[in-house]
């Protein structure tokens, strides 16, 4: 018999079906047993009259919760049952994989252990309704991103994660032994996606891992995360990149709302909203003025930059003033931007770059890139780089590289913002941090 | 003015347009200049009468081929022009990025330098028509894979690439310094996708990098490649996995044919064919019998395995006998399979596993996995593993893990097979091998 998904049982009333899933709840009464069985599409109440098969009743009473089971039975309409107004009258039950008792923790209890303990038993943690929905939303969001790219003729990239030379600054770099030499893990596909522009691919995207040997212990930093990267040729300025990104994000939000809006309301308890475009824009200078006006003091040691507290304060201000969750902060000073960001011709101390702040969290850095070989080389030298390690990169600009710009977005940070998750550990399949390499 | 793609010029006859692209050919005659300009959608002839603007004519004559340019002009119908039967009468031309002359090599010459030299200048190599089409086909193939998964309710995974312990054998492993400890690069998402089964995700996919410290120098090995991984719960045997994979691949081939069949014919010179299902299946024992019958001698030192020559001979036999490019080789002996492959209950020396051979090249390994905790642990010990390093993995099977199976497929190998590419270096954006970490 073919398996029926629990979410489809309503269409099978009056029929005998086979379902597979996890035993979420067992109420073992004197004459009757009530089971709640769950699969990835929903949960159903299963009812069994013990005297029908005392041996099977005995098997059921010893089943630990969260055991994996396959069962058959008749689907009957029953309006008083809370779970979908139907139940399954059990006929056979096959224990596919018994859960030991007790579980390390009960994923369906109201109180949960610490996030660190949940990470130790992440696969049990992922059985929770919120976790499963988080990754369904991620799946939908990524597919929406790609749909949008495909409609515009983008090419998908898979750039190497092992590099022979450090890609950017050399800081926060993981080093590995590569046969008889050293190599490094890519901190971003930055140089590789720019190579695609020199290759004439014109529009590329990549969703893949990036690595940062960042010793931070915060609710939003990871040593390995999934980066979403875009690069587009023939742009006139960073404004073209922002105009692309805001429409693209709006589309992604709309697709998530269409597919999961109701379930998000039910599971996370809020109305999922699609942002309007254009997103508000402020220059870096204006942002600093705003922060001054609301009394937020930027730490002196990060001159020209905005710290996480400043991002939150700015996000609050934008929310209040424009009722918008997003804000582009543009025109960052060259001191806090990498050498390859293009500079404003009329104000060479500023770059044609932006950050995107969403609900007070930085989720994107973008820019137009400098594509003129001589200018780029000069800017690299100004930043103290030497030609050797970036020779391959500089070569991209020697034989017909179009103007281009792009951005990188952290997938888990976007998910945090979308679903109001307080900790990035809940927005990633398996967290990696300075103290966390398992499971 | 908005840019018009060269592929769309037919719809703009009689209009003034702006195009952007690369100067592929320049014929500089006494009175006229003819340019072939290319973007990612096609090429067009541009014509310019020098006396209209001698200064511009001078700029054009000094332009190196492959320079990036933006130009405007009138689109006119001209049936005698080979490139699409139209041409652009030039008005203005803007040099976005001049190409130095001479180029390291001319990508549009009939004779090309060695593959190693092409890799040094990969971005010029990628401008070739065959290269661009290769990555358009890859993009379409990946989207088709995901479409198929989405229709069946799969969840997308991004598993960590940094691991605290070796995932499988410990051989061919890259080691890295991770703060004050050692870590390893993932050789496959195997353990992580099985964790998704324990998490109740039921059906997952991942497309991401995998790393093998393999010192081989062949036309089909890489130290880093893009793996396509699938894992499915509640399977009854490896047959369920094969039945999924062949239909999925058929769908992918169909989508590629629909989108690129004609261009593949034009650029690669063959008719792109969609494979029929079911694919032929032979057991490992039958495969060895077939190889014996065709006189292929398997190397003695790889007992129970099939070497690359044997794969080619088997592929030829299947092609001749069944006129099919694919063959599943099933039921491999436990000696050549990892501990987690499920064994045949009626013949415990054989595993419920398969390889998929396509045009004589192994592109996939798949299997049903052992999901019974005690059996799995025993099989691990038999293979000489100790519990410590795989404790986290073994724990996945203790609290309700359903039966499951899956496969991994090498994306570049699939592309080699699809497009008859002789070398994997042509089927990957940037090749990584023991001697190759640049660009």
Automatic annotation (TrEMBL), chains A, B:
Tree of life domain: Bacteria
InterPro entries: Aa-tRNA-synt_II, aa-tRNA-synth_II, aa-tRNA-synth_II/BPL/LPL, Asp-tRNA_synthase_2, Asp/Asn-tRNA-synth_IIb, NA-bd_OB-fold, NA-bd_OB_tRNA
EC supergroup of this enzyme: ligase
Domain Aminoacyl-transfer RNA synthetases class-II family profile: 135-439
One GO process term, biological-process aspect: aspartyl-tRNA aminoacylation
Binding site for L-aspartate: 168, 212, 365, 369
Listed GO MF terms: aspartate-tRNA ligase activity; ATP binding; RNA binding
Stored HAMAP family: Asp_tRNA_synth_type2
Protein name (Swiss-Prot/TrEMBL): Aspartate--tRNA ligase
